[in-house]
Amino acid sequence: MVKRLQRLPEQITLAELSNGLTIVVQENHTAPVATVRCFVRNTGSAFEGRHLGAGLSHVLEHVVAGGSTTKRPEKEIERLIDRIGGATNAFTSDDRTVYFIDCPAKDVNLAIELIADSMSRCAFVPEEFARELAVVRQELADGEVDRRRVLWKMLQQTIYLEHPARHPVIGYLDVLNRTTNDAIVAFYRERYVPNNQVFVVVGDVEADAIVAAVAKQFEGVPRGAETFVPMPDEPMQSSPREAICEMDGATFDFVLAWPTVRLNDPDMFALDLAAAVLSDGDSSRLVRRLKHDRPLALSVRAASNTPAYVRGFFMVQASAPPDTWRQVEQGILEEISRLHEELITPAELAKVRKQMTAGLVFARQTVKSQAMSIGNGVLAAGDPLYESRYVEQLGKVTAEQVRDAVRRHLVPQRLNRVVLAPPGGAGAAAPEAAKGEESPIRREVLPNGLRVLIKRSAHLPMVNMQMCTLGGSLVDTPQQAGRAHLVAAMLDRGTDKHTAREIAEYFDSIGGSLSFSAGRFTVSGSATVLKEDFAGAFEMFAECVTRSSFPEEEFAKVKQLALRAIEARRNNPQAEAQELFFDLLPPDSPYHVIQGGKKETVGAMTTESLREYRARCFAPNNMVVSVFGDIDPDEALALVRRHFGGLRADPAAAKWDFRRNNRIGETVRKRYTTAKPTGMVILGYEGPSIFDQEDYAAMTLLDAVTSGYSYPGGWLHEELRGAGLVYWVHATPLSGPAPGYFLAMAQTHPGKVDEVVERIERNFQRARRGEISEEEFSTAVEMVLALHAQENTTISEQARQAALDELYGLGYDYDAHFPERIKAVRREDLARMANKYLNHAIILTMTSSESSANGSSTKDR
């Protein structure tokens, strides 16, 4: 049945079956995991032919993914996937639908079988069909209030007037409502044929065995008629176009775009370089000008979109507040004009090429990203190694070619201007990884108390460095909300030796990444660089941590951006509801403190308050530094000693009281109204801290039973999503070194919030009664163990997890014993946990219903 077999570089095997199925396998033995993905070409919104606008491909994605087949019912498939800890999902774009299961490598044959069944043996059970159609219709409704999706649809329909690429992936509700189930099934029979499919498996597998396993699953599945979807050429644009729409929100979100070329046109590489010069990295032209030199934009990015099936477009997308968005737009147009007139400098060319090379290496750390790279390459260019060859071609582009391509395509007469305004504003891959040495984590404590974690992991020529300090909401009061966030934002905005621009330019020039962030209990930093740049990058990284100067001019910019981000939170109903919920928590709980701050707290912040925070928290005995990657451990430790060993210990710094109040003495129900046409629900119960190890492990399994683990599932998802009541629902422990909460959250129709609350409470009552079957419990255990095994697979994730566990006092290897803690839980422990914690709750509902009592509050006594 195997018609053609080819061995390619990077341990890739390419095979074609006699029925036309393409199989690509890449062996990657870094971790015992695998991913199975099937790319269905000649599907997607642009390829729906006479059903254009119905979103058939997207509907099929919902019905086919995990749905019943002629071999197994849906529930059995769900149980099998949960049992192996499989993470499964699917997505649809303009020109393809992709299905995947990520799993332990030992279960790859089952994952292959399940995906293959879905690709040719979908049963189309009427009840499943009806349920998923209801979900799609709700998704269509929700898309009308999603600013990102609305802006993208406006752009598509402005750039393309004739080509099917103008239609949204999800389609239109009225067209879908006129489409019969028979038409959807017929589309599946016509397009889901082996010669339209590319089957990709990447992971800790043996290629020939995988090819044989896939071939076995497609035995007897015939080749289909070759698919031909005629598409009209999009006429060349001859004059500027504009689309403006008002939508609830506080910002102007807009795109400036120009039609360009298809995939692999010689100008494609030059246009990609131009986009990188404009917005890749903090020292890029637009980011530096519009976010750092003057904090005018909340976000700005350039991209060159060049699909294979239609001429693409070059775009610059930005978000800005009403008082600066015009300046942002003008700045973008001026930088485009500058590309017309001036050659980009040799330094910029070198920087962007290094960024591309580093990005290729970094992006291929996981089997999931490798599989996407391979599948996209096959569909776009018939080449699994397309991404590597793309970078080679990019390296040949000259500054003159960039300028000439910009002059050809980014011209005023073909500008498309798409603006989403607030109400009233309409006017106005890398070489194959070396199989290097892998060492255990090495822990050292410097004389000043600094804890250091070192690990050699040489499968890729890269190094990650992390720094974590304890503090955050353990230190900040509600009146200081946002302080840790501002401290993190300022660490790379200037030191006593380098300016913010110089720091950004350095990391961009080596293709590295640098970031600092504040969690609820920490301030941390991370940098990832190629092996050859480690020593210099670590010096700069340490300088940002130990010698940041908090310059006033940079603080003014950071503060302004923080205030605008606070204002922009109003755009997101989930963020709005969560902030209201946190406000209801006990004032002395660290979970009450809003991480990004509030307008009044951030507005009152000064650089002196930031220095006070640093003096209290940035002591070496309150800090962990980790270095993981292709390193010599002794040399890495010497670097840490050189750059951090001189810090002075503070005897009081590490004395933290984690015993904070999370008490909910009685159930409180609070209802809010919102201008957004959606409903939000949050139920918050008391929960354990991470130090309550037995309780936390049992809570993790209770979470898996009631709502899945990492991926949607469990009782809540099955009942509420199955009934078409919610767009999404999930429960999660909100925990840390201080006792936290167990949250259940959902987004629903405004008129359904009370029913959703009642059903969530009913399911938790079921947990308190211990109505958890042995099968549900054992499935939850297997699912949690398997999914956890697939977490923290990159060196940066591993370094961060080890550093945080060490910082909290759990020990750097605490996460390695996660399976032991889960296996020690017994089924009766879940009912004990539910009765201990899931009693009184803070219940918040947010609705646009006029019948809602604005701000009303009741208490259950």
SSE inventory with pairings:
Elements: E1 2-8, E2 12-17, E3 22-27, E4 33-41, H1 56-64, H2 74-83, E5 87-92, E6 96-104, H3 108-120, H4 126-143, H5 147-159, H6 173-177, H7 181-191, E7 197-203, H8 207-217, E8 241-246, E9 252-259, H9 266-279, H10 285-293, E10 299-305, E11 313-320, H11 325-341, H12 346-363, H13 367-381, H14 386-394, H15 399-409, E12 416-421, E13 442-445, E14 451-456, E15 462-470, H16 483-490, H17 500-509, E16 513-518, E17 522-530, H18 534-547, H19 552-568, H20 573-583, H21 599-603, H22 607-617, E18 623-629, H23 633-644, E19 668-673, E20 679-686, H24 693-707, H25 714-722, E21 726-734, E22 741-748, H26 753-768, H27 774-789, H28 795-808, H29 818-823, H30 827-837, E23 841-847, E24 857-859
Parallel strand pairs: 3-7, 8-12, 14-18, 19-23
Antiparallel strand pairs: 1-2, 2-3, 4-6, 4-7, 5-6, 9-11, 9-12, 10-11, 13-14, 15-17, 15-18, 16-17, 19-24, 20-22, 20-23, 21-22
